[in-house]
Specification:
Helices cover 14% and strands 29% of the residues. InterPro entries: PEBP, PEBP-like_sf, YbhB_YbcL/LppC-like.
Amino acid sequence: MKISADFTVVPDDFAKAAAPEYRAGGVPVISFPFYIDEVDPETRYLHWTFTDPDSIPVCGFEWIHWTVANLPIDALMFDFNDSHALSIPPDFSRQMPSMIPEAVQGRNSSASKFLGRDNDPAVIMRYNGPQPPDKDHDYYLHVWATKEPLPGLNQGFWMNELLHKLRGCGEHPDQGGMFVTGRA
């Protein structure tokens, strides 16, 4: 599997410099577009995490920006004549609940009880764009594809639950990833 985007630096609309209309609770909430190519044809479901390993020296842990599970590949509109058959469109995080209700999004680090943020699902259970406080950070998008949905994951799952389900799913998920930079 290959994961790619039309950029290496996250565009302003999806990150720290996002306009006020692209934010909720001060956080950028419009997810960026990306492509998933060369997926194992036997797989039927996509799952991903988008995290910031460079946040570890800043806050002591890897910041979770977005998690998705059990997205049926068949629910995505794609054109086999396109060089990028599977495309995740911009703002997919906010559109997905109404478009593909069987897919679920997990909590991000904004859901931490230590931050004291509002419990607004638009902020704590959707995409949170990069906002590095100290310097440019490298963010990692990791995508897995499985033949079967991962059982027991509901809206608001935690990332560790997703990783446990992937490890225990009884198959070797197809996977790929990419790094992108978020500007300080």
